[in-house]
Amino acid sequence: MIDKGIVIPIASDHGGFAMKEFLIDKLKEEGFSVKDFGAFSEESVDYPDMIHPLAKAINDGIYPLGIMMCGSGNGAQMTANKYKGVRAGLCWTVEQAELIRLHNNANIISIPGRFIVFDVALEMVQVFLNTEFEGGRHNIRIEKISKTL
Ligand code: RB5
Questions:
Q1: pLDDT tops 90 at residue 140
Q2: What is the pLDDT of residues 90-136, one digit of tens each?
Q3: Domain boundaries in the chain?
Q4: Does the pLDDT at position 1 exceed 80?
Q5: 7-145: what CATH class?
């Protein structure tokens, strides 16, 4: 089980705003502290403006694991994965949320805020936060990700 003393950073654009608010409430109910990087309303914004600060904070080692969403989850994931120390995985099932930790040692989960029901997103987040990286053969694979040709 993850230490409830850690702070969980979370970010979205307008497309993920409603889901972000839902998840913040649930995480707080579970005893976590949350750092909210915005967005702070459903007014249209550009997802990189919220995702870059979250991804940088993960990259800098300020938080171990982060949560983010945009409408599709794709723009957020593409932005966050620009950082060398970030492995952001796009998930739309609970099993995928488990696999990005077990196999990919993902440190950010990217959720499609407009395509997943909120209760599934919550379950995905709980599994993401409570699953450990398997290591072993997956370490070698992860090391190869940044070795572009
Ligand atoms: C916003 O309309 C939408 O483009 C954004 O939330 C996201 O899906 C981008 O990848």
A1: yes
A2: 999 999 999 999 999 999 999 999 999 999 999 999 999 999 999 99
A3: 7-145
A4: no
A5: alpha beta
Query: Would the CB of 80 count as within 6 Å of ligand 1?
Result: no
Choice from 41, 45, 72 to test ligand 1 binding pocket (greatest atom count within 8 A of CB):
72
Atom of ligand 1 nearest to the CA of 112: 8
The residue contributing the CA closest to ligand 1 atom 10 is: 75
Taking CA atoms, 84 is separated from 15, 108, 133, 143, in Å, by 26, 13, 18, 11
Distance of CA 92 to the CA centre of its chain: 12
Question: pTM of the full predicted structure?
Answer: 0.97
Does the beta carbon of 17 sit less than 6 angstroms from any atom of ligand 1?
no
Catalytic residue from among 14, 52, 103, 138: 103
Q: Is 14 a catalytic residue?
A: no
The two three-digit tokens of residue 127, written as one number:
């599994």
pLDDT value for 70: 98
C-alpha 120/C-alpha 133 separation (Å) is 22
